[in-house]
Each structure stands twice: as C-alpha cells, then as structure tokens.
Design goal:
Metallo-beta-lactamase, Chain A, globular, binds zinc ion, six-stranded mixed beta sheet, 32% helix
Length: 250
Amino acid sequence: MKISSSCYAIHGLFTLSPWVVNSGFIVGESKTLIVDAGANYLSAQTIFGYATSAREENELFLVNTEPHFDHIGGNCYFSEKGIPIYGHEGINRTSEEFYGLAEEFNKTITSSKRREAREEQTLFVNTHPVNPNHKISALRTTLDLGNKIIEIILTPGHSPQNLMVFVPSENVIYSGDTIIEGYIPNMEDSTVEGWKNWMKSLNIIEELDPGILVPGHGKVLRGNEITKQIELTKEYLIAGIESGKAPTAL
Ligand SMILES: [Zn+2]
C-alpha cells in the first residue's frame, strides 16, 4: 500500500506461524529501492511485482535490514534478476544455517504424513541462500533515487547487523525489526550488550521523529503510535538488561 508520495509498504508476507513479515519500497525518478526480500522466492516475486508496477522504467535495488532469513530468504529471486543487493558488511549467512531452518519448519507440521512428505519444501520452492553483493559499513549512507534522497542508517541491537532506511523528505522510516508491532520484540538472538545498543538505536529513531514508520513486522505506525511502540520496546529491553533474560526465553 502507498503510505506517502513515494513510499510503499507490503504486509502479509508469510514467515512462520504466527509471524508475517513486511517489506516495502521507495520510488525515485530513476531508481526504486526495495527494503527487505521476504522469506522466500515466492514472497520476492510478489514484492518485485508491486515495486515494478509503481514505476516500470526504474532501476531496482534491494537492501536487507538484517541477517534473519525472514528478511533475506527472497534475495535469490532478486539476484537471479541481476538486481544489486545491499546489506551490512557482517550480514553473510551460510547454506547450513539456511537448510537448518528449513528442517525447523518441517518439525512444526503437525501431520506426520505431511512431515514425511516434506511439505515444508513448498515454502522454499526455488529458494536458496544469497548474501548481499554490496556491503555497507558506514554509520550513515546517502543514496539518490532520482530527486529522492534516502539514508541507510546502522541500527544494531536486534542483531549486530540491523539497519534502517530513512526518507527525510517524507519523514518515513523503514525500521526493520528494531521496531515491530503486534509481537513481543525478538530479543533472543542478541545479548545484554546488544540490547544496550538496541536502546541507542531507538534513540536515533526518536531523534529523527518520523511521521510514518514501517516496522519489520506488524502494521504501519503513524505519529503517536510510533512513540508508544518505542516506549514499549524500551520497557522490554530495560527488563532484559536488568534480568539478563529475553522476555520470550523459556
Ligand atoms: Zn524479522
């Protein structure tokens, strides 16, 4: 859906029940930047379809906000199309990690017949791990999409490689999982040190004071909703830092 004059959000890309993941894109006069690739090849096809229909003649670029597979699984589709993929310099994932995840999906199928038939593979049709071919190490990177300046800003915390995309002229942020809505923040893949960095990353977002924010998961947030979600996330982080435990840890 269109959220401002050049920014779009895509909801409802499936990852693992009950999780759905977001993507989105920003359309300049000559380039379109896609933020996150979805979990698999099929999600990436959907994202590509929306992004190209918004302005067919534009060159496409993709940026991954983090190394978790729900955000990068679709990279293979974009790479097949020769589309440049940007990501944090430390983002690379291995094939073993990827195929291990597919195994986890198999275990979540309740019917033993379906498990034996390996029906989780329907999620991974044509999907294989592809890492970004353009690495980002600067704290802030400015790109021009053609009369549309955007900034990629490093926001470690959820993972050390998290980043976000800021569109200053429209006051829009694509936060990745630094902010998610409708779910308890996923703090399990980080550490107390990481959670402290996450607090600083939330402060960066607060200082930018966006009017619209596309979270990594959940609905698009506007105005006050953003401030409230930042406060809620901070509460979880402070509790985690004090107790040394993620809120969802068993
Ligand atoms: Zn995620």
